[in-house]
Amino acid sequence: MHRHFQNMARLKVQNKNTKAHHEEKKTRQREAMRRLRESRRQDPEKYEEDKRKERERYYRRKEAGQIKTIDQMSEREKRNQRKEWRNRSKKHYLGKKNAKELELKLQENSPPATPIPEELMAEAPYDEILQERYDGRKRQGRSRRRKHVKALRK
């Protein structure tokens, strides 16, 4: 029986060393980093701190010569870099154009908005209902942030 468990342990170690296991681990790590960056982007102070650190890192790499500016490149490198910039710019504007076209198509092909019944309008204007929902969400967010700060202080 004891030998059986040793074989099982050996099999588990072998499975951890497979390429599929490493790929799965990488995807989990990428997803965790994506969530972390998203949460830091939501906090303005942390976001500004991250941007400042990235700027400092860029300047350090530039001083060390790891990053070349356009005036430091050879003519061939300049041509390639400018070609890359043109392609990125074209791709960006095509994406914006396609998004705008999609928005127009959705507006044209969507049914008209459902009218609000008169009895609901008489009770409370729709804008007030939306404002109450928004205020409630703000309160929930504030209380969530307070709890988070208390937990961090402990």
From TrEMBL:
Residues 88-97, 139-154 have a biased composition (Basic residues). Residues 1-118, 132-154 are annotated as: Disordered. Residues 20-65, 73-87 have a biased composition (Basic and acidic residues). It comes from the Eukaryota. This is Uncharacterized protein.
